[in-house]
Amino acid sequence: xxxxxxxxxxxxxxxxxxxxxxxxxxxxxxxxxxxxxxxxxxxxxxxxxxxxxxxxxxxxxxxxxxxxxxxxxxxxxxxxxxxxxxxxxxxxxxxxxxxxxxxxxxxxxxxxxxxxxxxxxxxxxxxxxxxxxxxxxxxxxxxxxxxxxxxxxxxxxxxxxxxxxxxxxxxxxxxxxxxxxxxxxxxxxxxxxxxxxxxxxxxxxxxxxxxxxxxxxxxxxxxxxxxxxxxxxxxxxxxxxxxxxxxxxxxxxxxxxxxxxxxxxxxxxxxxxxxxxxxxxxxxxxxxxxxxxxxxxxxxxxxxxxxxxxxxxxxxxxxxxxxxxxxxxxxxxxxxxxxxxxxxxxxxxxxxxxxxxxxxxxxxxxxxxxxxxxxxxxxxxxxxxxxxxxxxxxxxxxxxxxxxxxxxxxxxxxxxxxxxxxxxxxxxxxxxxxxxxxxxxxxxxxxxxxxxxxxxxxxxxxxxxxxxxxxxxxxxxxxxxxxxxxxxxxxxxxxxxx
Length: 498
Known about the structure:
This protein has helices at residues 13-24, 54-64, 78-89, 101-105, 107-111, 125-137, 176-180, 205-208, 228-241, 258-272, 288-296, 311-317, 324-336, 354-367, 384-391, 397-404, 421-436, 442-448, 454-468, 471-487; strands at 2-8, 28-34, 68-72, 96-99, 118-120, 147-151, 154-157, 187-190, 193-194, 224-225, 246-249, 277-281, 300-304, 341-347, 372-376. The protein is of the alpha/beta class. The chain has a seven-stranded mixed sheet, sandwiched between helices. Helix 17 runs parallel beside helix 19 (454-468).
């Protein structure tokens, strides 16, 4: 069968894995990449919607003539993917399967859209391959595990299959199509593990780990790792065929296994020492030995989240077990080895106070990160924070419905209600400039951060973003605009889908 994948805004590693897995089974795949210039996972600029050029994407889809259309979308991309899908279904008479975290959490809700025929929950390689095989053979698909579908006018979700235990058994994700359309130019996104040892309330892992996969009896661990040799083999392959300038390890926590890390970093430093790599860490998984191993491997850049410096909020609301001492210690150890440290914070958390937010600002200022990402709390459907916000009166029925529709985002207007939510939004927008801008500006910015001026703060954020974010972030933005330009360029009248 011919399966066409629709992706918006960025390279999706999960889709790359699905494409490779289907091709290993003898099927053909294509990528329909929508740059999402007006909206992607990180930002929304409706004024740029005329530049989407969906007409070209629809024509390319027709030329590919798929037997099945597969869509993957995060929550904040979901409404835009759905809008495009509705246009696509008017041009192509092929069934549609929807996957990704939003569909996994809300399968029945997603299936309410008549354009969508199937939903895949959780890990999708085996499920999608079985669906494609049975559709090709004209067999019933009603009993496929992980699959949700409509039956007798109702949505039915089949039981889940076990998680993939041996990640080395999966083929490497397909990369070239993303590079061909300009979704990526020089960053190699890698995943060395699946799952997270923690379940912070605001993260999708609080749903996957504590709800979805608790349904499955068995011995497969939630956190699984590829072997160091398997990861190195993929990096070796991709650096030989693509102009890679940086490796981005997208694991939830890259440093969680010291034994694995030691073996992997020795191999990486031996072959790829000159290629910088970036990753996320948890403060509990950083010590002198790990920092020495990271520094010896080459040029690491790392991110460890503060989220909130108010220990009570962090532990009782976010369910993070680290403390401020561990945060300071980890940053100090890494920086002492010359390793740049970035961080993330969240404002607008249920039950936080202005004092809570200033504790966060002061801790971020003390750490002095290379880059800081400042978010507004978003009640992602299925997460524990959405339940906490609902029970506490911070999220009403309409607000949660808007979250289910994927409206707003953690970069823009909060869906939560609180007496001082405007101040939280103001602080979130001004913090990056406060931390990374000229120190002479801090007094005036600190004065502004005591106010409720979210619109003005938003304008300041937009104006200062090119200067306060790292070269990696600027490279990502460049890739987005590059993919937009390529979507408006077509050679020899032929489809660009590969």
